[in-house]
Every structure is written in C-alpha cells, then in structure tokens.
Specification:
With 188 residues, the protein is mainly β. 2% of the residues lie in helices and 48% in strands. It has one helix and 15 strands; from the N terminus they run ββαβββββββββββββ. The strands form three sheets. Strands 3, 5, 7, 11, 13, 14 and 15 form a seven-stranded mixed sheet that branches. Strand 1 and strand 2 form a beta hairpin.
C-alpha cells in the first residue's frame, strides 16, 4: 500500500475491492480507526514522526461540509473542505487525504484548490503548496452516491511540517466528520 497509515494492526479492509471509476480502489476502514491515526512516518517528512494527537493547539483547523445533506443513489454530492492556518508560521510539506464514505465515489476532474482545477485521480496524498501563516485554503470536489446506505460519513486529514510548541516535526490535523443521509425510499 502507498499509504503507510492504512497499515495499522490489520484493521483496515478494502470495500468490495471495487474500482471507483477514477482508477483508485475505494479503501475504507472502521470509523474508529480513521479517527485514531497511529504513529508512522510520512512522505515528504520521512525522517520525522506524525503526532498522534490532533494539533489543535497549533491553530490549524479543517472544516468539511457537504451539499446536499440528504441524497439518493446516483445523486452528486459537493464537498467543501476549508483548511485554516491560524498559527504564526507557515505549514511545510502539506499533504491532504480525503476519506469518502463507503457509498461514495469521487468524480475525477472535479477537485479544485482555491478555485483552480487539480488533476488528482485519487483523494490520497494530495500535495498542497506551503500554507502561509494566517492563510485559508478552500478545496472542493464532487462524489456520487453509489449504494443505498442510511448514513454516509466522510472526513479528511492534513499532514504537515511545523514548529509547534518549540518542536519541529510533522503533525496531523483531522477534520470533523461530515455525514449525509441517503434517502431509503428513493434508492434502487
């Protein structure tokens, strides 16, 4: 696997090993494991360790939202992710990972970063430019509801290098969990 964080105690699994239209496999895990990143090395900060805690004291926040909040199978959902760097320093080597719920498939070619189209074919390991102190980055993308599940949860996390609390290392900040409801009476 290209994502070292996926290899944690063997608790991650593939979702039907299904191709997702964009050439990447839809990887899922239990929600509990998605929220508890393990200590691991990451690229490009391969000589440092990701902090196991959410770096809220550094002033970095991720806010994930979706429109609409209730959808049917085959309907398109628009996600907006806002990364805010309220710290007094820039964030180096920022790498973004967006984890869509089991029922969703990313629609390739829909990802934008601050309004500029990005050619990402997968939502793992998206390299961002350095995020300046006080800056905000807005990312949008579209995903299609593929199966009829009652609720679908998604989240994102950002790995980056920073000097936080006088400690130079890589940190991870995780977004809120965004939940959409799939209309049970309208699905196929």
């Amino acid at each position: 696997l290209n994502e070292p964080w996926l290899v944690q105690r063997g608790e991650f699994m593939f979702y039907n090993n299904q191709m997702c239209g964009c050439g990447c496999r839809n990887r899922t895990s239990t929600l509990n494991n998605m929220l508890k990143p393990q200590t691991t090395s990451i690229t490009p900060c391969s000589t440092t360790i990701v902090s196991e805690k959410n770096c809220t004291n550094c002033g970095v926040t991720l806010a994930l939202s979706s429109t609409p909040c209730c959808a049917r199978v085959c309907e398109t959902i628009t996600y907006t992710l806002t990364i805010t760097n309220n710290s007094s320093q820039e964030l180096g080597c920022p790498t973004l990972n967006i984890i869509l719920g089991d029922s969703l498939c990313y629609m390739c070619g829909t990802l934008t970063i601050d309004g500029t189209a990005n050619d990402a074919t997968c939502l793992r390991g998206i390299t961002l430019d350095t995020i300046a102190a006080g800056a905000t980055v807005t990312i949008t993308l579209e995903a299609r509801v593929m199966t009829n599940e009652r609720y679908v949860n998604s989240l994102a996390y950002l790995d980056y290098g920073a000097c936080c609390c006088l400690d130079n290392r890589c940190y991870r900040t995780t977004s809120n969990i965004d939940q959409i409801q799939v209309c049970q009476c309208c699905g196929n």
